[in-house]
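Quick one: structure tokens for this chain, please?
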Amino acid sequence: MEKEFITISKPVDTIIWDLDGTILNSLEISIVIWQSVLTQHGFSMPSEVEVSNNYHGSLEDTARGLAPSASDDQIRQLLDDFLKIDNTSIKDADRHLYEDAVDLSRRAHTKGLRQILVTNRAHGVDRGNASPRTLIEGSRLSDYIDKVICGDEVAERKPSKNVIADILMEGSKPIVIGDQFVDAQFAVNLGCSAILVNRHSDKTNHLDKLGDIDKSVIHLVDSLHQVII
């Protein structure tokens, strides 16, 4: 099947980026951490496929999917231990970035597009190297990304349009680039189109939840190298 190429052109002037799974290969990191944490707490070690299949959604969703028999207290312990490791796991942010995302961000910067990263991942004083701000500031993307909005810095989180409504300049024409249903919903709420990259599966789950909208505004690609600016 011939790959589809998507062109970002005027009047689009702003790219709204997702972080996890779009720019950052956090699944690769999560697999190692979940395998370690779950076995330490007496649960079966999940395979890479099992972690991948339970990766979408919140961190708690992943924990409950990988340890369905765990009590609420055990889930809290799993999450605490996961975050302790995750906060220090990234020593060199550039090693964990998707090269097609870096390339697209660089090309967008060259064309003068504004770039804003919006993530539900928290910044938090204890997030260490896992903080979105720390990740971007310590990477090649620091020259390309103009603003970072973290999940603990706003009253409402993605996919609410209020996450970014006060930040977008009047008359701005954005496009959302992400990898999950929440990014598509975010674009719908903003009244713009989205490009979703399928990193670890042959489809993006839950797009049917978007309801009766023009699905032509949601573009699916296998790689961000398929995006032309």
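The chain has two domains: 6-25+97-228, 27-89.
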